[in-house]
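This section describes the prediction task in plain terms. A model, or a person checking by hand, is given the sequence of a single protein chain and must write out its three-dimensional structure as a string of tokens. No templates, partner chains or ligands are provided. The sample shown here is typical of the held-out split.
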Amino acid sequence: MSSMMLSEARNAPERIAGQLTRNAEPLAEFGQWLRRRDPRGVVTVARGSSDHAASYFAYLCMQSRGIPVASLPPSLTTLARAPWKLDGQLALAISQSGQSPDLIETQKALAAGGAQTLALVNTPRSPLGEASDREIPLYAGEERSVAATKSYLATLSACAQLLGHWNGDRELLVALEALPERLRVAAGQDWSSAIAALRDADRLMVVGRGAGLAVAQEAALKFKETCAIQAEPFSGAEVKHGPMALIGPGYPVLVFAPPGPEQAGLLELAEWLRSVGARVLLAADDGIAARELTLADAGHAALQSLSVIQSFYVMAAGLAAARGGDPDQPRHLKKVTRTR
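The expected answer:
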């Protein structure tokens, strides 16, 4: 069964190719500005899939820049009226529509508190963009399915390109040039075994680590909204700190273990999960014999998360259909959410 979700997920590589070209100059200029200003910290403002993308940015920014990055609850502005003091910091707001009042009000308050503000928005000249010092369009194109796919991937690539220019990281910028083709390969991976394993599931755990935790969070959300499965995301480092009590015979666990420093620990965790009877679906590169799902190489450690979620989205659209649902019209949900 075809769906807008599936079509839009498969369209992501093409959209990202255009985005990387169109944003190269403005992000190069902004990267130079950031190097001159040298922000002492970053705060992010987002909800849902956009907040998961902010988590990806936060991990890579802290890893490469050594400065703290914190996700701010908009209610601290809209309800608690926190007295922000953010001189010398960057405020990054992320949104598909740029229309949610709580994000707009928060971005204005952070600017009034001294922050330099940037918005990553899929709808150019949005109210959120207008409330920010700078707006960088995501260029994902119109997304008609309620479940965000290509806009999430486009946000991750924009974050990577921003950090590449901020850090003067030529290796990452070169890898981004090849990313669209690598994502096409990722979209073609056969994850049908996951559909068979999860067709009748009512709950599961999704595990990632490092920058990969952001895509575990995103995958868990997609399981909920498109497949009506109660899915919970955890860091591989946290599973044995309480969540392990959930694991029983046959309990499904999806483990994202792409190449990188986190992989060894995730493989060890997958082995332990199998030893206690969990139904493990291990997603790893083709050098890992114990994998159930194959990951395509994204070409750079910072980009592996994009390959993971690209393959996942295609599978999730198929799983939703296999469970008799419509991934384009999740129950109770709308495309644009306006919170206050």
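For orientation: Residues 138 and 158 are 7 Å apart (CA to CA).
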